[in-house]
Specification:
The protein is an alpha+beta fold. The protein has 2 domains: 92 residues, Phosphorylase Kinase, domain 1; 236 residues, Aminoglycoside 3'-phosphotransferase, Chain: A, domain 2 (Alpha-Beta Complex). Helix content is 43%, strand content 12%. The chain is built from 11 helices and 9 strands. The strands form 3 sheets. Strands 1-2-3-5-4 form a 5-stranded antiparallel sheet. A hairpin with a 2-residue loop joins strand 2 and strand 3. Helix 5 packs antiparallel against helix 9, helix 5 packs parallel to helix 10 and helix 9 runs antiparallel to helix 10. The radius of gyration is 20 Å and the shape is globular. Bound molecules: 2-acetamido-2-deoxy-1-O-phosphono-alpha-D-glucopyranose (GN1) and magnesium ion (MG). The site of 2-acetamido-2-deoxy-1-O-phosphono-alpha-D-glucopyranose has 10 residues, from loops.
């Protein structure tokens, strides 16, 4: 992302908080986030990446209001001093302020108990929205359109043959494309309202390890829950995180599903839960494809210039991690299917 952004201090004028203290939080790959302290209260200020339209805040407002009404903890948008849900100007783009939820974020899970908690919270989140009637003001198409991500990768390979790192990226790209060829990408399960980006770092835990709330609500959408759970489980069941040689943990997988299923009693049908193990592997491979595409394009994911020489290098590492994770899930395929079947039938 470019560096000529207005400062968060300037944008805070929209909330009459220009005297607040700000501290940047560097974990997100898409938006920029600052913790803001003003008159003893904490908030999260964010610059919204233009891949999202500002109308996303209308959805967020409706859904967080519903979540709160159902007794869940959730960040809420703080209106600007002129009563708007976001601040926008031509130069600065779109900014918004949230209430701050105190607690801890983890980049990766360290125990089955943590995964159980994450699953329980995501189940409560889905349950609270199960029969919520909402017409989305903003829809980001193709988030898990796996075929589209595959063809993006193939196209980038053709387009960027001159890339300086092409010789190290191309074999990884071909390996990803080969892995896809063994997978059935069809899904016809019902669409439900889901979070859309349930990776572990988007969950807040309290000091006792209880999962309190889901953060990062720009991706709220309707989709089959197998896609959502696939995205959650590929993140939660790899204690090595997204930047190191992965370690898929079947015990984390079972425990997360157990927590989720308990919170979804009477809701998820076999059509919802049946494809979860297959989609856990697909989403991991899909993310590998997205990172690998960006190793060539260098235009989408934020990267760490302190640790890597280029966006390409950082994204290639991320792609290799997700690819290796998907391969290790392939080795656990039967056990993942069995765990899923053992957990659900008595509860649906
Ligand atoms: C991005 O912005 P962040 O870090 O919450 C990405 C997700 C990926 C994730 C991988 C809008 O999420 O889809 O799963 O990185 N978000 C978007 O860490 O592309
Ligand atoms: Mg996100």
């Amino acid at each position: 992302m470019d560096t000529n952004h207005p400062t968060p201090e300037t944008m805070l004028k929209n909330w009459n908080m220009e005297q607040a203290r700000t501290e940047e939080i560097l974990t997100g790959h898409i938006n920029r986030t600052w913790r803001v302290t003003h008159e003893g209260k904490a908030f999260a200020l964010q610059w919204l990446n233009p891949i999202f339209a500002p109308e996303v805040h209308l959805d967020m407002e409706a859904i967080t209001s519903r979540l709160q009404g159902m007794g869940l903890v959730t960040p809420r948008l703080v209106r600007t001093s002129s009563g708007k849900l976001w601040a926008e100007d031509h130069e600065a783009g779109v900014w918004r302020l949230f209430t701050w939820i105190e607690g801890k974020n983890h980049l990766s899970a360290d125990s089955p108990e943590m995964c159980h908690e994450a699953g329980r919270l995501l189940g409560k989140f889905h349950s609270a929205l199960w029969d919520f009637r909402h017409e989305f003001a903003f829809t980001r198409l193709g988030v898990h359109d796996t075929q589209k991500h595959i063809s993006n990768l193939s196209m980038s390979l053709k387009k960027h043959a001159e890339h300086s790192e092409f010789d190290s990226i191309a074999p990884v790209a071909h390996d990803i494309l080969d892995e896809f060829s063994t997978l059935d990408l069809d899904i016809s399960s019902p669409e439900r309202i889901v979070h859309g980006d349930p990776k572990l770092s988007n969950i807040v835990f309290d000091q006792q390890g209880k999962a309190i709330c889901m953060l990062d609500l720009d991706t709220l959408a309707r989709m089959p829950i197998a896609l959502e759970l696939g995205d959650a489980l590929r993140s939660w069941c790899n204690p090595a995180g997204e930047e190191m040689e992965p370690d898929f943990r079947l015990d984390f997988f079972s425990s997360a599903l157990e927590g989720y299923a308990r919170a979804m009693v009477g809701k998820a049908t076999r059509e919802d839960w049946g494809p979860i193990p297959r989609w856990t592997r697909i989403i991991s491979l899909e993310l590998a494809a997205r990172f690998c595409t960006d190793a060539l394009e260098e235009s989408y994911f934020r990267w760490d210039a302190q640790k890597f020489a280029s966006a390409s290098e950082h994204n290639l590492l991320r792609a290799k991690v997700q690819l290796s994770l998907a391969k290790s899930m392939a080795e656990h395929e039967d056990a993942m299917e069995k765990a899923n079947h053992d957990i659900w039938p008595t509860r649906t």
